[in-house]
Predict the 3D structure of the following.
Amino acid sequence: MSSLFKNPVARRLLRPAADLVDQRVRKDIDKATRSEREAREAMRGELDGLRKELTELRGKQFASDLLFERAGSGNRTPTKQQYEVLVKQIAAVSGQDVKFARRNAMVAFRNVIALEALGLGRLAGSTSNVCGKLATVPLLDPPNGDVLEIGTLFGLFSAAFLRMLHRAGIEPRLTIVDPLAGSQLQPGTNFGSESTGTPVRLDVVRANLALGGTAGEQARVQQGFSDDEVVQEAVSDREYGVIIVDGDHSAEGVRKDLEWAEKIIAPRGIVVLDDYGDGAWKGVQEGADKHLAGETRFEMLGRVSTSAFLRARA
Ligand SMILES: C[S@@+](CC[C@H](N)C(=O)[O-])C[C@H]1O[C@@H](n2cnc3c(N)ncnc32)[C@H](O)[C@@H]1O
């Protein structure tokens, strides 16, 4: 301690000044403590708000997962990047402006979600492939509204397809060929039990077709195999504007379906070859390439996701 503070007279003289300094220091400490407390309280308030927001967001995310999860396996949540690739492919194959491709892709996606939410079973295939087929065909301006789908499974794709054609101003008339044998049939593949738990049956297909509007209710369903002469004869009564080949996925099966399609397609008609280029169904591309290498009315327009699009020459 300095000698000045040891001196009682000096201490008495200096006390007011020391008190003043003490007061100032205490005030500063009080102020700092208060603002620290206030900052802590504000931070706690903010944290509570964020916690509440996170709980709400998790609830919304869970609800959205329930909507976009596929009945069976996987989900229907394409990334923005996958979606942009799809839009570009639709525009390239259809030769239409990107804005029309984007609009159709969006409407197709909404239809897929809505129909899988309401329908029985599922649409087969990846979101990009399903949306690609739904969005591209209306932009290709098929010559008439007669549609033949070879292989329908639950009929949900057909229902969505009818809606996509109708919204583009085409009044569709649908014919389906499928054995509807209780489960999916594919040569050399045992599907076992269907992941959705829904049987592949006529009553199920009918219930789903009703979601496609009047055209769905009026659809013609021919049970049987597409290479059966009786089946072919029953539905070869018109020239189809669109033929979707999605039945027997073996090379031989696809080749036979294309041979039949050559005879019943309308001039400028569109053939959709599902699963073309899909590594899980190598027979599709093998059979199609073999067929297209020979004499044919079809020319390849291109591919969207794992579907190829052909047009019959006029
Ligand atoms: C891949 S699924 C069809 C999926 C449906 N087009 C969709 O997009 O949801 C194939 C369907 O074709 C049927 N199928 C198998 N061989 C067939 C054939 N030769 N003629 C007609 N349908 C066949 C299967 O039993 C199954 O119902």
Remarks:
- Strands lie at 146-150, 173-178, 220-223, 240-245, 265-274, 298-304, 307-312.
- The chain has eleven helices and seven strands.
- The longest helix spans residues 8-68.
- The longest strand covers residues 265-274.
